[in-house]
Write a structure and sequence with these properties.
The chain is of the alpha/beta class. It is 45% helix and 23% strand. The protein has one domain: Rossmann fold, CATH 3.40.50.150. The protein has a seven-stranded mixed beta sheet with strand order 3-2-1-4-5-7-6, sandwiched between helices. Bound molecules: S-adenosylmethionine (SAM). The site of S-adenosylmethionine (SAM) has 18 residues, from helix 4 and strand 2.
């Protein structure tokens, strides 16, 4: 099947299973504000939400907010008493996300921290709040391994860590690649394999966003 075939299947599945005016409105607002369309796909957004719901996640950390599309899905899953903390470098993205989250009716359960995530994460740790149940990593790919190391400091046994865009159109299997994002994906896979505190896999995905995949890890007891 071709890339356009993957997109057709995604459109069919989303039409039937994901139609969702609030997140569609967020995507429209992102486009109107000139944000890049690098959010997770609608099917992936709903999958994240279902995963968080089915595991009873109440505290979620997201690294990479953009306009808050994935954040809305996660915030719905944690429920009214839950909390999502999302880290975003670009103040303009954070501003659009804040409006989208408020418009979607979940703004009161989302805390957006603006700044480089590697500077926000030590602040979060110093706050010594409860551990996160789920960490979703979707920011600057070269720092993925650093973000997983930080996630390990901020989670508990049984918590999930998900890292998006690891497969990179299959390039993750190319040991000769000099693309920094591909090298970072390979470093991440090797780090996940060697890290005794994590049990992990990577699932490939195809769809409207092309061929990619995400790492899924659980913190060991
Ligand atoms: N998770 C979002 C979604 O699916 O709707 C998409 C996130 S987008 C792929 C990546 C975001 O990470 C961008 O908004 C970018 O500004 C942000 N970002 C890049 N480098 C960052 C950093 N060092 N710290 C925090 N955010 C960063």
């Amino acid at each position: 099947m071709t890339t356009s075939g993957w997109a057709d299947v995604d459109a069919y599945l989303v039409d039937n299973l994901v139609r969702d005016p609030e997140t569609e409105a967020a995507l429209a607002a992102n486009a109107a504000a000139g944000l890049p369309a690098i959010d997770v796909s609608a099917a992936q957004g709903k999958f994240l939400s279902l995963l968080a719901r089915s595991t009873g996640a109440r505290r979620v950390l997201e690294i990479g907010t953009l306009g808050g599309f994935s954040t809305i899905w996660l915030a719905r899953a944690v429920g009214k008493a839950g909390r999502v903390i999302t880290l975003e470098y670009d103040p303009r993205h954070a501003e659009v996300a804040r409006a989208n989250l408020d418009e979607a009716g979940v703004g009161d359960r989302v805390d957006i921290r603006v700044g480089a995530a590697l500077e926000s994460l030590p602040i979060l740790e110093a706050e010594a709040s409860e551990p996160f149940d789920l960490v979703f990593i979707d920011a600057d790919k070269v720092n993925n391994s650093n973000y997983v190391r930080w996630a390990l400091r901020l989670t508990r046994p049984g918590s999930m860590i998900i890292v998006d865009n690891v497969v990179r159109g299959g390039a993750v299997a190319d040991g000769a690649s000099d693309d920094p994002a591909v090298r970072a994906s390979r470093e991440l896979v090797e780090m996940l394999a060697a890290e005794p505190r994590l049990d992990a896999t990577v699932l490939q995905t195809v769809g409207a966003k092309g061929w990619d995949g995400f790492a899924y890890a659980v913190v060991n007891d």
